[in-house]
Design a protein that fits this description.
heterodimer, A: mainly alpha, globular, B: 3 domains
Chain lengths: ~110, ~270
């Protein structure tokens, strides 16, 4: 509940302040957002499974974001940034789908 | 998050189903862990839990912030700012080839437009030429009224000494002198006009005509006058049969009698 409120507060802050994204962070922000979404869906699933652990969530959230950004950063340095960000998005998307399916089974039993 | 009471309700129902192979491992352990898990917050030190909650809240607020920022920056028109160099080069190439394509399209359209405007001018010229021809043909075939300089002839033949060929001679003489439009009595003379002798007189195009005749002709008045007065010509002939003829030259002869538009039944134009 607190997490949901925090999420809404974050969205509102982003809308209100309308910050310009710094140029160096621009390629990584979408990937980081997707990685964080993956962590959030994983956390919701764990919560529904009853095995939610705050420490695991925090660590996985941060490491997800960092690893995703790192992969894209390395890809940019290696000249395959576009392909690697696609790969990251695909992998994270698959995980999000899997977690969303598990959440759906919990909520709707279907 | 708000469905906290649910998982305990879900568990007993889902376990016997065993419909989720990928979840079976945790599920075997769950019944044992379920109750302790629910009781954990009570057992845990409150401060740690609160710190974790705050951390989670901060992380999720950051996520929401990033999400909103990204959505906004993505919806900006200038979405190229964050693109990579090779992507930008590719986009530039695309734009260049698009420019070339559009320019060649523009050239095509301009030449098409030029062609159309030329043909429109040509069409206007052709139409005015066709109109001119139609007017000339209408005058010649007698489907349009006409006026212009010419002569008006009053021809009386009290003794009925003039026959069809004499009247035809009048018309021929006028034509020979360049008359363009001729009206004989009430009849417009056309290419198919014919004088025919009947027992009680003369018919022109199956219309009975009788003395005195009024003949109007459009042409050069003096030439027409001369042609009629030529020795052994119309005037002499009329006088020889005891008739009388007066020729009045006029600068404005108006001919209003019309002929039906002839529709060729057998002949079709060649070359159209």
């Amino acid at each position: 509940m607190i997490a949901a409120i925090a999420l809404v507060i974050g969205v509102i802050l982003g809308i209100v302040f309308r910050p310009t994204v710094p140029l160096w962070i621009e390629p990584y922000l979408p990937i980081a957002v997707v990685a964080a979404l993956d962590a959030v869906f994983g956390g919701i699933r764990a919560r529904l499974d009853g095995i939610f652990d705050a420490k695991v969530f925090v660590v996985s959230f941060i490491s997800n974001v960092l690893v995703a950004a790192l992969i894209v950063f390395m890809g940019d340095k290696l000249g395959v940034g576009g392909q690697l960000s696609t790969a990251v998005v695909v992998v994270l998307g698959i995980r999000i789908f899997g977690n969303a399916a598990a959440i759906r089974r919990h909520l709707f039993r279907a | 998050m708000t469905d906290e009471p649910r998982p305990p309700i879900d568990r007993p129902e889902q376990l016997p189903d065993e419909q989720l192979p990928d979840e079976q491992l945790p599920e075997e352990q769950l019944p044992d862990e379920q109750l302790p898990e629910e009781q954990l917050p009570a057992r845990r030190p409150r401060g740690l839990n609160r710190g974790a909650t705050v951390l989670i809240g901060i992380l999720l607020a950051a996520l929401g912030f990033g999400l909103a920022v990204q959505l906004q920056s993505n919806s900006k028109t200038d979405s190229l700012a964050g693109d990579r160099e090779d992507d930008l080069v590719r986009i530039l190439d695309d734009q260049n080839s698009r420019i070339e394509r559009l320019q060649s399209e523009l050239a095509d359209l301009q030449s098409a437009k030029q062609k159309l405007s030329d043909s429109r001018n040509g069409t206007a010229a052709a139409r005015s030429e066709a109109q001119r021809q139609a007017d000339a043909l209408a005058v010649l075939t007698g489907t349009a009224p006409a006026h212009g300089p010419g002569v008006v002839i009053q021809l009386s033949d009290p003794q009925h000494g003039l026959h069809a060929e004499d009247l035809l001679d009048v018309v021929e003489e006028l034509r020979g002198a360049g008359a363009e439009v001729i009206q004989f009595g009430p009849v417009r003379i056309g290419t198919s006009s014919a004088f025919t002798d009947q027992a009680d007189g003369v018919t022109l195009d199956s219309e009975a005509i009788g003395s005195p005749y009024t003949i109007k002709a459009i042409g050069d008045p003096s030439t027409l006058n001369t042609a009629l007065n030529i020795t052994g010509g119309v005037v002499n002939t009329v006088h020889s049969v005891g008739g009388d003829i007066t020729i009045q030259q006029s600068q404005s002869v108006s001919i209003t009698a019309l002929r039906d538009n002839p529709t060729p039944k057998y002949a079709t134009p060649v070359g159209k």
